[in-house]
Amino acid sequence: MTHMPLSLKTLPNRRDEAWKWSDVSRAVSNDVQGADTSAPVQIFVPEGVTVTRTDAAATAANDTSLVKLASQYAGQVWNIVVPDGFSSENPIQIEGLTNGHAQISLSLGKGASVQLVEHYDGQAGAFVNSHLNVKLAEDALLDRVIVQTDPDDCVRISTTHVTAWAKSELRQHTLAFGGKLSRLETRMAGMGEGVKATINGAYLLDGARHCDMTSYIDLACPDGHIRQSVKGVTADKSRGVFQGKFHVRRPAQHTDARMRHDCIMLSDTSEIRSKPELEIYADDVVCEHGNTIGALDESALFYMRQRGIPLAQARAMLTEAFLASVFDTLEDEVMRESLLEKLRAWLEATV
Amino acid sequence: MLKINNLHVAVDDGQKPILTGLSLEVPKGEVHAIMGPNGAGKSTLSYVLTGRDGYDVTDGTVTLDGKDLLDMEPEERAAAGVFLSFQYPLEIPGVPTMTFLKTALNAQRKARGEEEMKAPEFLKKARALAKELKMKPEMLKRPLNVGFSGGEKKRMEIFQMMMLEPNFIVMDETDSGLDVDALRIVADGVNKLRSPDRGMLIITHYQRLLDYIVPDRVHVLAKGGIAASGDAEFAKKLENEGYDAYAA
Ligand SMILES: Nc1ncnc2c1ncn2[C@@H]1O[C@H](COP(=O)(O)OP(=O)(O)OP(=O)(O)O)[C@@H](O)[C@H]1O
Ligand SMILES: [Mg+2]
Fold first, then answer.
1. Which residues, chain by chain, have CB under 5 Å from ion ligand 2?
2. Where are the beta strands (DSSP E) in chain A?
3. Taking each helix axis from N to C terminus, what angle separates B150-164 and B119-132, rounded to the nearest 10 degrees?
4. What is the pLDDT of residues A180-222, one digit of tens each?
5. Closest-lying ligand to the alpha carbon of B11?
6. Any ligand 1 atom below 6 A from CB of B42
7. From the alpha carbon of B47, which atom of ligand 1 is closest?
8. How far is the CA of B38 from the centre of ligand 1 (A)?
9. Chain A: residue nearest B79 by CA?
């Protein structure tokens, strides 16, 4: 294994189209903690799920530069294997990931069903770069929840590749509070018929935080069903980035794919950058995307105040109502309530 | 007692004067009606009383029971007991009606230094009232006013009013868009709230409402102020003769 110092030249910068709004190179200094070390990783699994460690796999030429860096510096790959037909009340939990690079692979066998909860809470001033490689065999269901609560000087890149075989399903709900720079990227390849995915997320940003939610859904087979709703609120001088792409290949007939990004700016000094994209080669499909950026409705706020609700509380209530809908599809009520609690705490402190 | 003295109000960043010296007193226990042509400034008056942004008071005073209303935030006025039934009630997406109303009620109570109303008591009161106003119970679970018909929204205003038990009520065309049955239900509700320590200002275009809610005084708002006043009979005369006599 080679341990070269992390070269800032290899980090993406704004001249790379896919990173034009998230300049990692500028956010990271050479001596940042975690630049050339492997990340601490803790994985908790329900009985029946196995975890092993193997040497880093060779990376594919078309991997992103950060995925290549992850394989170079992570040292080993954590392999989580969920057997065929598995199901459990208990989730797989991934913790740690406080600084450095990590590579994790998660494989769900045929008909397996499991919840995966990832908590990203990095160290102050650290750089964290993790790559999760997911395989969903036929009829597998992954219910994934990501909670990102990094400090405001932490740089985090989390890249996920999902390979989904026939009739498998990904349900993903993300609650993110950004960082110095954070990019949560989901890249999914639909490789079998009838793949389903719900890819929802909310970002809440204050101060000078930056959060980037990027996704690329590549469908190669018929009858895919994709629902994506990302919502954000930006306060102070924060910056929200959404990039979403559906790539529907010629054989992917009867694809039903919908993408939305809706954002509320709580300050004039915050920024939103958004790029929803559809690239469609199949002719019998329903694909849509929508994108709105707005402010809280002044008339509604006045109405609420007229009824006695103080301005700050009225703003928080309207913002919560706006954001909360992305978690309506989260079936685990306890988890949903815990995400809403975090969201409310942020609103109380910020709005 | 609500006391409005020489009120001047302008909109459009103070460029467009709407009220130009309006004076009016509504003593406790009385119901006053305000009629007048479209665009005269009736809704403007309701917004100034409740503190909406964009309505600049350039002169005059407004007090409720001696307290300067103009100096208070909208939510402070609400806690002081001012309630507006909106001409066009707003939709509040994602906030269930009951959550909204309980938050409002308890925010008012907190501002007044009173104890919060607990959930069971609140629910009991709300259910009984919904029944009285012949409202479908599922309306209370839906986000406030979202997808409600015009008449349902007006009924919801009355529901909120009766839950909050304000001590000064402004109703801006609450009767518009109501069918006869709803009008009667709403009027019954309002009449129940009539009391020696509550004042009401009812803005309407129709004498019909005033058959159910008989006012102590009727005023014409025109040319930026109160152009004429009379008793309940005066409303009938206005309906027959129109406002030509008071127009600019
Ligand atoms: N926010 C505003 N900005 C600009 N003009 C306004 C605003 N609000 C009211 N106006 C104008 O002020 C005038 C009075 O409006 P208002 O709504 O108070 O009338 P009204 O008496 O309630 O009429 P109606 O009987 O039609 O309800 C109108 O000419 C209206 O266009
Ligand atoms: Mg009006």
1. B 42-43, 87
2. 41-44, 50-55, 76-82, 92-96, 100-108, 113-120, 127-136, 141-148, 155-164, 169-176, 181-190, 196-205, 210-219, 225-234, 239-248, 256-265, 271-280, 286-294
3. 130
4. 999 999 999 999 999 999 999 999 999 999 999 999 999 999 9
5. 1
6. yes
7. 18
8. 8
9. A308
Going by alpha carbons, the residue nearest to atom 18 of ligand 1 is B41
**Encoded tokens for A167:** 């009739």
Q: Whose CA is nearest to atom 28 of ligand 1?
A: B39
Exposed/middle/buried for residue A207 (C-beta within 10 Å: 0-12, 13-18, 19+): middle
List the single residue in A297, A306, A322 with the smallest CB-CB distance to B78.
A306
Return the SS3 of A131.
strand
Alpha-carbon distance of A218 to B214, in angstroms, equals 69
What is the value of pTM for the model shown? 0.91
Q: Are B44 and B12 in contact (CB under 8 A)?
A: no
Which three-class secondary structure string do you get for chain B? CEEEEEEEEEECCCCEEEEEEEEEEECCCCEEEEECCCCCCHHHHHHHHHCCCCCEEEEEEEEECCEEHHHCCHHHHHHCCEEEECCCCCCCCCCEHHHHHHHHHHHHHHHCCCCCCCHHHHHHHHHHHHHHCCCCHHHHCCECCCCCCHHHHHHHHHHHHHHHCCCEEEEECCCCCCCHHHHHHHHHHHHHHCCCCCEEEEECCCHHHHHHCCCCEEEEEECCEEEEEECHHHHHHHHHHCCHHHCC
The pLDDT mean for chain B works out to 94
> Could you tell me the pLDDT band of residue A1, with boundaries at 50, 70 and 90?
very low
B154 alpha carbon – ligand 2 mean position (Å): 14
A71 falls in which pLDDT band (50, 70, 90)? Answer: confident
Between CA A42 and CA B139 the distance in angstroms is 48
Q: Which of A303, A308, A310 sits opposite B90 (nearest CB)?
A: A303
Determine if ligand 1 sits within 6 Å of the CB of residue B54: yes
State the ipTM, two decimals.
0.96
3-class SS of residue A17: helix
Nearest chain A CA: its distance from B208 CA (Å): 28
Helix (H) or strand (E) holding A343: helix A333-350
For the CA of B221, the closest atom of ligand 1 is 21
- The single-letter code of the amino acid at B171 is M
Domains present along chain B, CATH in parentheses: 2-92+166-246 (3.40.50.300)
pLDDT of residue A2: 46
Q: Are A18 and A243 in contact (CB under 8 A)?
A: yes
The CA distance from A315 to the nearest CA of chain B, in Å, is 12
CA distance A61 to A70: 14
Residue B201: name the closest of B219, B186, B225, B180 by CA: B219
